Sequence to fold (327 residues):
Amino acid sequence: MASEIELIERVRRQFPSARGGLRIGIGDDAAVLRPGVGRDWVVTVDAFLENVHFLRKVHPPKAVGHKALARAASDIAAMGARARFFFLTVGLPDACTRAWLDDFLDGMARAARRFGLTLAGGDTTKYPLVVASLTVVGETDRSNAILRSGARPGDLLCVSGRLGEAELGLRLLRRKLHKRKPWAGFLKKHFYPEPRLALGEWLAAHRCATSMIDTSDGLSTDLGHICKASGVGAIVWATKIPVVKIPPELRRLGLDPLDLAVNGGEDYELLFTVPKKYSGRLPRKIKGVSVTVIGEINRDKKVFLLGPDGSRTRLQPKGWDPFRKKG
Fold:
């Protein structure tokens, strides 16, 4: 078992604390941050727990480190903010204080560089399971953060990327099919999600998104959050949803691409609304990420899925909810 001082030193080596806006970083009792003039801080906290969000025997420690930070950074993207700093609190069992921790930190450090994040502090402790809490700080122009509550009737509903990819990877993992060569590539988004930070910043800078959320819990659940916060309803066009492409041999296992796209979580794409006047001016790709119009906001305060045959089905929130009763 390494001492806490040794653990902190290994963290410090992976994450040099040198960046504008961070006056005091790792090594003191607290960090000292200084926002820019005319800027707001955007702060989020996210938990990442063994046996809830990952399985130590299945998920590589580098992927655990990457995903733990990506999940939290995605909330910053959903506000249209620029990622700046993060704080890491981690509890570890004895078995994870050496090689496992080094790989975990390596995966997180690579993600931090990719996302433009600097570690500003945190805490370490001993615990029977691996538990991590990430606090991420972003920055945006004053009063320019994109909220869930701004959707208005008539707005178009848009989503980035392709939905259902992370859920497909999870399903393969649960069926122990993830090591088969033809399908191993389907696990990339489950193991190494990419928060859409550049897209979120672009939408905020161009002031075209009226509301936004990330698809961490699944389209059916996260759209419900926007509608509730905004006091509106929505119609989603099933044929327009960019679904994951599933090979025929996997479809025979009962994997439905529309179900994965609508109810599967952890894609960390951005779901946002724009006024209809922007429909002709919204690029199909923004910062290298595809953007698709998949529906429209209305006054009904209910969410419906419009099928290919014109039928309307109430879209119930069946995405991730840690407190939902199973069965």
